[in-house]
Amino acid sequence: MSENAPKRTSLHGEHVKLGARMAPFAGYDMPVQYPSGIIAEHNWTRGNAGLFDVCHMGQCLLEGRSFEAVATAMEALVPADVLGLKPRQQRYSQFLNEDGGTLDDLMITRHARDGTLYAVVNAGRKEHDYAWMQKHLPAGVALTRRDDLSLVALQGPKAEEALAKLAPAVKDIAFMHYADVEIGGISAQVSRSGYTGEDGFEISVANADAPKLWSLLLSDPLVRPVGLGARDSLRLEGGFCLYGHELDETISPVEAGLAWSIPKRRRAQGGFTGWARVQEELSHGAAKKRVGIRPEGRAPARDGTVITDRSGRAIGKITSGGFGPSVNGPVAMGYVETASAAPGTKINLLVRGTPLPAAIVSLPFIPNRFKR
Amino acid sequence: MSARYSKDHEWVTVENGIATIGITNHAQEQLGDVVFVELPAIGKKVAAHDQAAVVESVKAASEVYVPVSGEVVEVNKELEGDPALVNRDAEARAWFMKVRLSNPAELDGLMDKTAYDRLVNG
User: What per-residue confidence (pLDDT) applies to B122?
Assistant: First the structure.
């Protein structure tokens, strides 16, 4: 294998056995779809329970002498309320650069063990993020990457029913919290979270246990494997940002519509990298805004498609676009000038040189059904 | 005439100087679920290897090239309402367009089924 050959997750062999179509993603050879196809996998997740390999994401621990010390260190890098986390609670946030652009988005969890945070960052950004944290964390807060851990997501309205057969305690896990659970003799850290817009769990286990857990979960007829293709259509319908598309080093969390993840104390007091721009945009508005887009016809409009107003003036670009199986039509997200961002605004999309009529719509396309 | 095949994964059959053109079953398998098909205008003049249609799966858009030159005389309207027909019956009912051939000799440059199967199966 050459140095550039894609890495394999601990579940690679399982995907091959299932007949998955594999493709490189963020440095890993990942399943795009299984033989049933993207639409069937998408619909299965909306109706039952889909099982996803997300081992490629970056799991890590930050440890210090006290929770306050570690949380304060993390708060210097993200605009979230980390100090306010209760044990076993998690929050969504972003690493920002000095200019208020987004370096990555991540999940931050207060570990049950004192003085410890557990974080999950994007696969394609993890090397960057680990170096960024290493550089900025104060002495006394240690970063440990947990490449020894695997991560799978079980998502859908039947996820609880399926997982509770193996571990009844998961019924009591609240949204955006985790518990330590035994699943068929495997020690797992199970959080009630995910990126499909459905109720579900993310399950972290030792690499060596991952294939056994995968097979055990798939032995339930409610559970089927789902690849990255459907993961993308599910998150797009759910209105969630994908790093490299809706988020990059030029886009602020305010532009991205993520101001809900920045609480009052952090807005007022700052103390995180990128605060100046966040404060400015929260006070005076951002120049552009992330929006949902519904083409009027059946043609999908893809990432990079130019958005114009009805007079033909360019007002923005699509960042993610495709077919939404649950919407049963094309859906997209993108950025437009704030003056044109109101739901109902009529726009055109330049698809293969032809202006196609579309409208700005509110997100998400499919209402989120988290169990709160 | 039995079907001929292009290296771009289109198939062609010819009757009375009119070529019927579609994408191969191998191509549809590679694409996955087809969700949209864009067809050319009737009367459009096409040259061999021109892009004449677009087929979109959930993941991506792919170009469809015409393997022969001529004039588009008919398109398969059924694909507009039911693009998934391409997945179900790529080499028969899910034809894309009919082209009146201007240079039938171009057909000689295409593969027969044995040669095409060898191409896709390696």
Answer: 78
* pLDDT for the residue B52: 96
Please, what are the averages of pLDDT over each run of 10 residues along chain A (372 residues)?
81 98 97 97 98 98 98 98 98 98 98 98 98 97 98 98 98 98 98 97 98 98 98 98 98 98 97 98 97 97 97 98 97 98 98 96 96 82
pLDDT score for A3:
60
The pLDDT of residue B84:
97
A340: number of Cβ within 10 Å? 19
Which helix H or strand E contains B81, and what residues bound it? Answer: helix B78-81
Distance CA B56, CA A347 (A): 22
A254 and A333 both lie in a single domain: no
Could you tell me the two tokens for A372?
Answer: 């709160």
Q: Looking at the predicted structure, is the pLDDT value of residue B1 above 90?
A: no
Looking at A262, A285, A308, the residue that finishes a domain is A285
Q: How far from the centroid of its chain's Cα atoms is residue A367's Cα? A: 16
Nearest residue of B to residue A320, measured between CA atoms: B59
CB count in 10 Å sphere of residue A37: 19
CATH of the domain at A74: 3.30.1360.120
Q: Which residues of B touch A32 (CB under 8 A)?
A: 59
Sequence ranges of the domains in chain B: 4-109
The verdict on A176 and A311 lying in the same domain is no
Residues A224 and A323 in one domain: no
* Per-residue confidence (pLDDT) for residue A141, from 0 to 100: 98
The residue of chain B with its CA nearest to that of A298 is: B36
Residues from chain B contacting residue A38 (CB–CB below 8 Å) = 32-33, 57-59
- pLDDT score recorded for residue B50: 95
- Determine the angle formed by the axes of helices A38-47 and A228-237, rounding to 10 degrees: 60
Residues in chain B with CB shorter than 8 Å from the CB of A323 are 33, 35-36, 56, 58
**Partner-chain residue, chosen from B32, B54, B83, that has the shortest CB–CB distance to A352:** B54
B38, A302: Cβ pair inside 8 Å?
A: no
Mean pLDDT of B66-76: 98
Last-in-domain residue among A285, A320, A352: A285
Between chain A and chain B, the number of residue pairs with CB atoms below 8 A apart is: 44
User: The CATH number of the domain where A296 resides is what?
Assistant: 2.40.30.110
Asked if A281 and A297 sit in the same domain, the reply is: no
| Residue A200 and residue A120 in one domain | yes
Cα A125 vs. chain centroid, distance in angstroms?
12
Residues A293 and A349 both lie in one domain:
yes
User: What CATH number belongs to B4-109?
Assistant: 2.40.50.100
What domain count does chain A have?
2
Picking from A298, A299, A322, the nearest residue to B59 by CB comes out as A322
Nearest to A328 by CA among B62, B93, B36, B89: B36
Q: Which of A38, A235, A242, A351 to mutate to test the interface with B (most CBs of B within 10 A)?
A: A38
The whole domain housing A330 covers 287-372
Query: How many beta carbons lie within 10 A of that of residue A88, not counting itself?
Result: 19
Measured between beta carbons, which residues in chain A are less than 8 angstroms from residue B61? 300, 302
- Confidence band for B59, pLDDT divided at 50, 70 and 90: confident
In this prediction, residue A4 carries a pLDDT of: 73
Of all residues in chain B, the one with the smallest CA distance to A302 is B60
